[in-house]
Amino acid sequence: MQGDYYQLPTGKVAALDNDTPFPPINEALTEPNGLLAIGADLSTSRLLAAYQAGIFPWFSEGEPILWWSPNPRMVLFPQDFKLSKSLAKRLKKNDYEVRFNTSFRQVMEACANTTRSEQDGTWITSEIVDAYCGLHMLGYAYSAETWIDNTLVGGLYGVLINKMFYGESMFHHVSDASKIAFAHMVEYLKKKDVGMIDCQMNTKHLASLGAQEISRAAFINQLKSLIA
Questions:
Q1: Residue 111's domain is classified under what CATH number?
Q2: 66 and 88: one domain?
Q3: Residue 111 near residue 157, CB atoms below 8 Å
């Protein structure tokens, strides 16, 4: 650490304490993509400031808090959501129920405990769970949940600020359960006139749903108007 920065092999990033504001996002490193700052806390005020600036936390157990703003950014415009024929057929069945915000912590814990081939461990630590449950209690964090026989089998959670939704994570214990929850969440967000869903990083799964990459500048430009 040097002064107010951490020096990394690929550049330097801001070192934050709890009262330090975020640096301009154009200071984010290109490698690793979008790393902007290290430190601070996960208070509701810090998290809301981050999301409104196009920044999000992502770190593993035992690491300091890492703050990111990647370029490009993966987003889904709700009107571009691709409903496959197989999913449309699945949605017509009446063997499930979709609920919103009834088991937020349970959804987060299920996301944390889901094994993913592209990840070694989870970034959804107990600290993250508690922090986002705090956002949920204030009305900023939402969950969509798929239930079968009164059992939670899939879902997702994210952060909603005015007309902007930030998707965080999803899980499924039954085939298509997370897609069912996501399809219902997209329809819910359309009704609330949400203009953009932040998906953060590019994956084939997100692309198959209609998500696309846009530049950080374009993302911030859209973000400013949607959260105003």
A1: 3.40.630.70
A2: no
A3: yes
Question: Are residue 65 and residue 81 in the same domain, yes or no?
Answer: no
Nearest Cα residue to 165 out of 202, 210, 196, 135: 196
Strands (E), the chain: 5-8, 11-16, 35-39, 56-57, 66-68, 73-76, 97-100, 141-148, 151-161, 164-172, 196-200, 212-214
| Structure confidence at residue 53 (pLDDT) | 98
Closest CA to 168 of 88, 14, 51: 51
pLDDT at 115 over 80: no
Going by C-alpha positions, the residue among 17, 50, 40 that lies closest to residue 135 is 50
DSSP string, 16-64: E-TTPPPPPGGGS-TTTTTEEEEE----HHHHHHHHHTT-EE---TTSP
184-195 residue pLDDT tens: 999 999 999 999
- Residues 156-175 have pLDDT tens digits of 999 999 999 999 999 999 99
- The whole-angstrom separation of Cα 193 and Cα 222 is 14
User: 51 lies in which domain range?
Assistant: 5-70
Q: How far apart are CA 144 and CA 180, in angstroms?
A: 9
Cα separation, 53 vs 136, whole angstroms:
19
What's the pLDDT band for 114 if we cut at 50, 70, 90? confident
Give the chain's domain count: 2
